[in-house]
């Protein structure tokens, strides 16, 4: 586990616990010599996890589209900043650089990034662990929805364990070391429906 991509909000959120959780994750990454791969921003939870990783001696690689860099939100002190042309290219580059993914609280963009790598995992496009850092129970409703998808037979049983969940950054990272990816998604043929 050499590098982890972190998806999170570009705002601080309503509770100080979200910022604190991002900072603790940054400390844990640096402590374990795991490079942080993230969206390259200096603001919100994105900035907090990057600042904390750097402050604790860790390495941080930001991946940011040019149009966001031009808005002057790119972090100025990263180990490396990769500039890409589009949001799609950003996600592809982050997936390429990372050995796993962690989602912190965030909005629609954060969820979109999470579900894209989750779907890629189902389809066998990668076999990397995906974690939900459930700070202050932020993702309880999402976890319930994922369970509901399974109960309603839109998510196969084997994929329920694909999303690793913890309220503790250290515990979540530890789960990554023992992660076993599920078999590639199987599809029902019309004759089986």
Q: Any overview of this molecule?
A:
The chain is α/β, with parallel strands linked by helices. It has seven helices and seven strands, in the order βαβαβαβαβαβαβα. It has a seven-stranded parallel sheet with strand order 4-3-2-1-5-6-7, sandwiched between helices. Strand 3, helix 3 and strand 4 form a beta-alpha-beta unit. The longest helix is centred in the N-terminal third of the chain and has 16 residues, at 16-31. The chain starts with a strand and ends in a 16-residue tail after the last helix.
As laid out across the biggest beta sheet, the strand order is: 4-3-2-1-5-6-7
Order of helices and strands: EHEHEHEHEHEHEH
**What spatial form do the alpha-carbon principal axes imply?**
globular
**Strand fraction band?**
15-25%
- Main sheet overview: 7 strands, parallel
Percent helix among the residues? 40-55%
Question: Please, how many helices?
Answer: 7
Q: Provide mean pLDDT, rounded.
A: 93
Uncertain residue ranges: none
Return Rg in Å.
17 Å
Global structural class: alpha/beta
State the separation between the terminal residues, measured CA to CA: 41 Å
Number of strands: 7
How would the blueprint of this fold be written?
Blueprint: E1 3-7, H1 16-31, E2 35-38, H2 44-55, E3 60-65, H3 66-69, E4 80-84, H4 87-97, E5 101-103, H5 108-122, E6 130-133, H6 140-151, E7 163-166, H7 169-177
Parallel strand pairs: 1-2, 1-5, 2-3, 3-4, 5-6, 6-7
């Amino acid at each position: 586990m050499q590098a982890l991509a972190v998806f999170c909000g570009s705002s601080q959120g309503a509770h100080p616990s979200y910022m604190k959780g991002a900072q603790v994750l940054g400390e844990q990454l640096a402590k374990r010599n795991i490079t942080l791969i993230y969206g390259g921003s200096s603001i919100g939870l994105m900035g907090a996890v990057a600042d904390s990783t750097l402050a604790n001696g860790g390495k941080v690689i930001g991946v940011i589209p040019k149009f966001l860099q031009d808005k002057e939100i790119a972090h100025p002190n990263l180990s490396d900043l990769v500039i890409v042309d589009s949001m799609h290219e950003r996600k592809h580059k982050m997936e390429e650089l990372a050995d796993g993914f962690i989602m912190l609280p965030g909005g629609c963009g954060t969820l979109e990034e999470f579900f894209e790598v989750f779907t890629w995992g189902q389809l066998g496009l990668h076999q990397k662990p995906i974690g939900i850092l459930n700070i202050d129970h932020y993702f309880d409703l999402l976890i319930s929805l994922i369970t509901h998808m399974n109960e309603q037979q839109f998510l196969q049983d084997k994929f329920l364990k694909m999303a690793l969940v913890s309220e503790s950054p250290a515990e979540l990272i530890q789960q990554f070391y023992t992660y076993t990816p599920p078999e590639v998604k199987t599809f029902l043929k019309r004759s089986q429906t």
